[in-house]
Structures are given as C-alpha cells and as structure tokens.
Amino acid sequence: MTNKVVPRVLVVDDDPSILNLYRGVFRWKNLALDTADDGLDAIKKILAGQYNLILLDLMMPHMSGFQVIQWLKANRPESLRCVVVVTALSPDAYRELDRTLIHDLVAKPFDVAELEGYIVDFLAGKGVSWIPEP
Length: 134
Fold this sequence. Notes:
Strand content: 15-25%
Order of helices and strands: EHEHEHEEH
Helix content: 25-40%
Radius of gyration: 14 Å
Distance between the termini: 23 Å
Number of strands: 5
Number of helices: 4
CATH architecture: 3-Layer(aba) Sandwich
CATH class: Alpha Beta
Strand order of the largest sheet: 2-1-3-4-5
Number of domains: 1
C-alpha cells in the first residue's frame, strides 16, 4: 500500500500577482503551498523544511534566483533536483545559469493549465504519490 502525502511546493517570486496566481491555481489541488517573495525568504523556508518542488524566479530583490541556486549547490545540493526555474528572461539573459544543476526551466508567460499538468507530472516523476483534487 502506498502512503499518500500532501506535496510541499515552494513558489519564489517577487511579483505579488504571480504569487496570487499560484495560490489561486493550487488552492484546491491538495498541495501544501508556501511562497517567498525573494531569495532570502526562500532560503529561510528551505532551511525550515523539505520541499518536493521549488518554483523559482530568477530576477528578485535582495537575493536573485541565480544566487539561490548557488546557495543550494553549496548547502543543500539534494534540493536542486526539485528546482524548476520559471522566468520571463530571454535565453541570452539566463545563459550564465548552469541548467545541469536544476530540474527544468519554464518560460513566462505560461499557460496555467499546462503548468498544472507539468507540476502533476513532475511530482509523479519524483515518486510523490498523492491525489490532486479536481
């Protein structure tokens, strides 16, 4: 018998409208959703607990997503496999990002239904067994 868990997802973005979008989309998905509005807040939350998925913007005040990835590489390398970068930057702007360190990259703007499906597939691929509510 498989234990059902409530996946923990951390969304890191400095845009309040994006954070609200994620909150609205995942309110009924049986996910434990945490948010952080900059990299420093994200690191505090990562230190306080494990996440099954971290959706990370790159351009933020105080500490960028690039810096969060470097911090994870040095301090919590096991968490990097849970990082999906979600960015509006052009490929030239994020070329310094070592994409081998993260799971994937999703471009903004994104289709909400496609992102929902992506997250379900991502969590299933990580062996997280849970029942997303419709």
